[in-house]
Amino acid sequence: MLRDQWGSRRKRLGAENLRSFDACCLCLQRAQRPVCDSHGHLFCKECVLSDLITQKSNLAKADKQRAHAEKVRAEQAKEAERDAAAAKIADFEKGSKRAHTEEDEASKKRRRDGANPAFWLPALAPGVDMDEEQLRQFEANTPPRTPLCLATDKPHPLTSKQLVDIVLSVRKVGVEEQLFCPSCKKQFTASSHIHVIRGCGHAFCAPCATTLVKQPLDKGEAGSCPECSTDIPSWARHVVAIAREGTGYAGGGVSETATKGVAFQG
């Protein structure tokens, strides 16, 4: 009983908990006008472009807030320097011998605020400089400067230029549509390893892509798309493997989730 509530736990995910091989990583529905990035993450074209626009807008707002906070802090630093210089001049003119030991007004105010016994009362709570606090948060949690692909636990930079339009072969079987490899005509399923040619976007199963594209390139021969004969200069840069979540079976990819916690000490 306690084991179900305490400590680290792991659970194997079934097929119903995994994204379909042809589903968009953002909306989780079957990808419309499918595209993929350089890491093989599949998206609807509209979904990923909308997400990029939203991220760019948020980044622009964050940059403005950061610039404003830095400007305010710089102005405050200059004002503090001017006040300190004015205080030194005033002390010199008065001939005070305590010029170097006398506290300025800012330090006195900070000491009074820190010694406030009723700091929990809203009317007597010490003031907080929101611009200073925002800048502190920016420095602690440095936001990215470019949009990211959030389809994985390790986000990577994403731009619209990286997206590859995918041309999937579709056939009708009864009332449903099936996606298949145009070379061997085998149906794509959750267990299929799909490879996409960057130049033309045609998608093939792993055996066909390896036999018809990779092996000739490894031998130094010219590579081309088996469907449209588009030139493929290299395998690593011109062929993208579509990322998949798995089948729900032990040997079918990522199919496990885990939570970490402290074990019961009683």
UniProtKB/TrEMBL annotation:
Residues 90-112 are annotated as: Disordered. One of its GO terms (molecular function) is zinc ion binding. Keywords: Metal-binding, Zinc, Zinc-finger. One of its GO terms (cellular component) is nucleus. It holds the Pfam family zf-C3HC4. InterPro entries: NOSIP (IPR016818), Znf_C3HC4_RING-type (IPR018957), Znf_RING (IPR001841), Znf_RING/FYVE/PHD (IPR013083), Znf_RING_CS (IPR017907). Residues 181-229 form the RING-type domain. SUPFAM superfamilies: RING/U-box. PROSITE patterns: ZF_RING_1 (PS00518), ZF_RING_2 (PS50089). Residues 90-101 have a biased composition (Basic and acidic residues). This is RING-type domain-containing protein. The lineage of its organism: Eukaryota, Fungi, Dikarya, Basidiomycota, Ustilaginomycotina.
